[in-house]
Specification:
Radius of gyration of chain B: 29 Å
Distance between the termini of chain A: 53 Å
Number of helices of chain A: 9
Mean pLDDT of chain B: 90
Helix content of chain A: over 70%
Structural class of chain B: mainly alpha
Radius of gyration of chain A: 24 Å
Shape of chain A: elongated
Oligomer: heterodimer
Largest interface: A-B, 34 and 32 residues
Mean pLDDT of chain A: 87
Chain lengths: 204, 632
Amino acid sequence: MKISSQKWIKTAGVLCLVILVVGGPVLVWWHSRQAKAQEYFSEALKAGHSGQADRAMTLLYSATAVDPFFSPAYSLLGWYQFQRKEWRRAERLLLKAVRCSPRNKKDWSLLAEVYYRQGNLREFLSAITTANRIDSRYIKPYLQRAMMHYDLHLYELALSDVSRALELDPQNAAALELKGMIARAVAGGGQESRKDMKYFRIQE
Amino acid sequence: MTFREKYKLPLAVVFLVLVTALVFSPVLSNPFSAYDDIHFLTKNANVRSLAPESIKNIFQSDVVGTYVPLTVLSFAVEYYFVGYSPFLYHLDNFLLHIAVVLLVFWLARRMKLPFPAALAGALIFAIHPMKVESVAWISERKDVLYAFFYLGAVHQYLSYIENHRKDCLFYSILLGVFSILSKPMALSLPFILWVFDYYFRRPLSWKAIWDKVPYFCYLLPVSLLTLHVHQYDPLATFSDQICVSIWTFIFYIKKFLIPYPLEIVYYIPGKLAVTNPAIIVSSILLLATVAAVWKFRRHRLAVFAFLYYLGSIFFILNYDLLFFVDFSAADRFMYLPGLGLCFLLADGGYRLYRWAIRKAYWKEVVLILYFSVFLVFGIKTYYHAFLWRNEIVMWNKAIGAYPPKAFLHDIRGTVLYESDHKAEALEEFLMTLKLDPSYDPSYFKIGKIYMDAGNLKKAFDYLTAAIYLGDRKSGALAYVRRGVVNAEMGLMDDALNDFDKGLKLSKMEKMNPTVIYLDRGKVYMLRREYEKALADFNRALRTDPRLAQAYFARGVVYEERGKDGLALEDYKRAVRFGGDPRIFLRVAAVYEKKRDWKNAFRYYSELSRFFPKAGWKNKLEELQRKITDENQ
């Protein structure tokens, strides 16, 4: 059976009408949810400043419940879970944060840190590279990567990262300290154990 | 029927075959390429056996993020016959390209293009310089194989709509399955069949839709698998995707019309932004192309060429962003998508010729123009095929054409490593990590270079980094190499531990474990655990029955256990499968032990032939004396 062009046009017209009728109210409803989420977030910030971390977290969860795409709430929740050393929860929340707002370099950097704490170096490196791509003048990813290279005994690569960090900020205390650590390790001739690093895990 | 009419078709076929063969003849003597051939072929243990286990592995694993089991299986068949001799691999690519050219010519005839236009269209397709990559590069067997099945599927579909024969539809679907198992680009097949429906004026009906459903049924799982094994760029925005798509769409058309300069990969010049002049120019050209197609919308071939190109290139327009690879375009992606443009160009040329024959002198001018275009294309293709012989020159050219890119340095490093320039290769890999420290394959490669150079401490560190930073596949390889490093440092328990972990990962990734069994067997051998060593060598030989090293190692174990007969058999097999001639020394020693002076003399003589400066004279004289004494 041949489908006539008139039938196609009619179907397309009806579809457009349905989209208009349903879409308008949905948009209005969605906007009100976003405003509510923002409200919860502001309250959470206040609670956090006054040291009520639990209340802040409850408010942040409420913000994500009303607006599942509200990335600042996920970021802050990820930070709280990171502070509590709840790595898996922090990872899940920060992943949601970067999915909602992929160009937030601080979230990527914190996510990398979470991966590192879990020993997942592959994901760590991927997250750190993304943070670096967003802003190549952001110093933290260089230091995080230098630390990883240091832990893997790849001192020339660690030094290269530290040098880049020092180019951006010659007085950076963390970079200077790391540089000293690398120099001591190189001078020591790498006397460390050459066994497996049990605290890192492979891709399984 | 005149002589001309009777023989024009066979003559055209012979002409196409001869011209294509001549233009691509340099590829036949090319070596293997270090760029991807090592992943697909020379270092892919799965191709070294046609045992059911290996074939199962081929169908259950991807190669560098691409699911191409039929292509890998074709390599396995070739390996079975000739091992690692590149001629047959190149010959098969070459023959497949010729077959594709003939299918293109047949398609043009079925599309009722005038005979000269059909011939010219097939000729443009055959000798276009952008085709070199697909023919000269063994790994791009993917292209010629998928195109062969793809066009076969199209022909069967056309037979189906002409004759309404269900068996033709079945064959078309089957060939489509083969096509997508050769390269995921065959994903476009059902859409392209719609384009053919349009060209052949098949009305849009439920039946026409229903006919395409089986194609989608098998395309869907393969597409999902392909997407699953690739990594997405988390920062790619919708506007980035649009920019890349527009640039790539126009880039391939430009390259098709003016194939100069040709590089192995292409990057978008400048930053990826709407304000980039390259993107602005491409957008204008895209609008002009759409306007031109609209203007000529009654010209069915023009619309067909546009839709065919759009349909077949659509899925790779965002290749770099979607799959997070390091380049935006490459000649090989234009192998089949350029087909409609070849027909359009040829048809336009034919129309121009028809117009010119009515004007004085113009006919000669047009003919000279066509001849020049074909000549330039032919010469460019011929020399570009030569360029594939020296990969370093090719990569140097690409590196010179673009700002520093980690990917280009990594590949140049690999090419240098494979051609035994290890110091330069090390510099390239270090440069790669300097440009992009997340480029994890370089950690493994640096580790290997340090291992070859005997710097075991550094090799250990880089291989450890490769284990943690790489994916499971490279993790398995890194464990094996680190196992060897540990064994060389005398840490046998650590070495065995690494081999076991490598084995576990390789099983998870459906990788061929031959090398792991071989290396672990050697460690067992050093620990005098001969039963375990023998078991490992036997396993290695089951998956690769031509592995000279395994025969040699098993021979040593047999010899240690006093089974000289079995040892001799294995040593001889090792030599037959290209093992080191020093094995003759072991063979000669066994014969000497057995007091078989004649054979010992024979093998020492062989040894003196390979190593004339080693001073075998005394030994040979001593054996000669013993033979004489024995005879007396």
